[in-house]
Amino acid sequence: MKLISVNKLEPGMVVSENIYTIDDRLVLPKGTVLDSKGIERIKSHSLYNIFIEDEVKPVPKSVPIKPKAELSYSEKLKNSEGFIRFKQHLEENAEKLEESFRMIANDTMPLDVDKLTEPVYHLFVEAGGTAGVFDMLHNLRDNSDAVYMHSLNVSLICNTLATWMRLPKEKIHLATAGGLLHDIGKVLLPPELLTKTTPLTPFEQKTMNEHVVKGYELVKDKDIDVHIKNCVLMHHELRDGSGFPFHLKNEQIDEIASIVTVANVYDEMTSQRLYRSQICPFEVIEQFEEEGIDKYDPNTIMTFLSNIVNTFIANRVMLNNGKTGDIIFVNPNHLARPVVKCGDTYVDLATNKQLSIVAVI
């Protein structure tokens, strides 16, 4: 793999990473064999450099140009006033949350859970409740803040997931607060570690993992519910004992922390980061299907999976063969492989194993 100027691109070169525009719209997926049209498409978006594979492949035969498709569900949403307003308010609240966390860490502000979570409930209503939260979050790929925006996202997901689980209001509130505070320990880490643009070294990862204990030390003596404290301490623990910091198993893990764990992993993996592109949600869903029962609370992960896939109905996706289509049906026995309508063709990914979703567009 190598980085090359777009002016030096030639037909037959193979794209090694998903290519996105400045505003995070997919231009070409990983694995695309470039032809003259693909090269022009890249240049038309004012991109400067892209990663390509070392090998060159035969250029695929050209296909007839199709009429320009109508805007996808995602594109329509991004252009809506509601989405623009939600994104602005989320960014504003992320800045305020950072300030609050620093003041709490400096002991110049009390840890008032109700006051901290109030903006989350406003955002929840603004997004349209459980039906709209994931519509908003799926289309937010901003990588400018991997801590405080993430904390708000996780809190919104926890609120939604706890609601899907039909938990009582007091537990929904605990999950919302636990999700918001779970990464508070990162305010005590070196800033350069949080903004590093390349993968962490083993030593740096060890330091990063210390945010769990540092966060717990910060809140353990505060007048807040013990479940919230456990969310700070246990949100990286997994049922099979492969998590950290204590390698807890099964019922040793707090029930509210189990909700935060699922929300944290999903948002972390599907969000863009300074050192990597976001992972396609359906790849994450498939990973959850494969290892969910072993690593996560069964009721939590099954509730999450059975509901999250429905939030993608009517969304346009790109397949690994380059074709695009709209999701029209979810396969209950293989949630990561829905039925996609590509033009006049219905593609059942549960039976077409060689095909998969590589991006939601």
How would you explain this protein's 3D organization?
By secondary structure, the protein is an alpha+beta fold. The chain contains 14 helices and 10 strands. The protein has helices at 36-44, 73-78, 81-105, 113-127, 130-138, 148-164, 169-181, 191-194, 202-209, 211-219, 226-234, 255-270, 281-295, 298-308, and strands at 2-5, 13-15, 19-20, 26-28, 49-56, 316-319, 324-329, 339-342, 345-348, 357-360. The strands form 3 sheets. A 5-stranded antiparallel β-sheet has the order 9-8-7-6-10. Strands 1-5-2 form a 3-stranded antiparallel β-sheet, with no helix packed on it. It has a two-stranded antiparallel sheet with strand order 3-4. Helix 3 packs antiparallel against helix 4, helix 3 (81-105) packs across helix 6 and helix 7 packs across helix 12. The protein is globular and about 65 Å long.
Topology summary:
Elements: E1 2-5, E2 13-15, E3 19-20, E4 26-28, H1 36-44, E5 49-56, H2 73-78, H3 81-105, H4 113-127, H5 130-138, H6 148-164, H7 169-181, H8 191-194, H9 202-209, H10 211-219, H11 226-234, H12 255-270, H13 281-295, H14 298-308, E6 316-319, E7 324-329, E8 339-342, E9 345-348, E10 357-360
Antiparallel strand pairs: 1-5, 2-5, 3-4, 6-7, 6-10, 7-8, 8-9
Relative strand content: 5-15%
Q: Are there runs of 5+ residues with pLDDT below 50, and where?
A: none
Helix count, per DSSP? 14
Counting DSSP E segments of at least 2 residues, the number of strands comes to 10
Q: Helix share of residues?
A: 40-55%
Structural class: alpha+beta
Spatial shape: globular
Instruction: Give the rounded overall mean pLDDT.
Output: 91
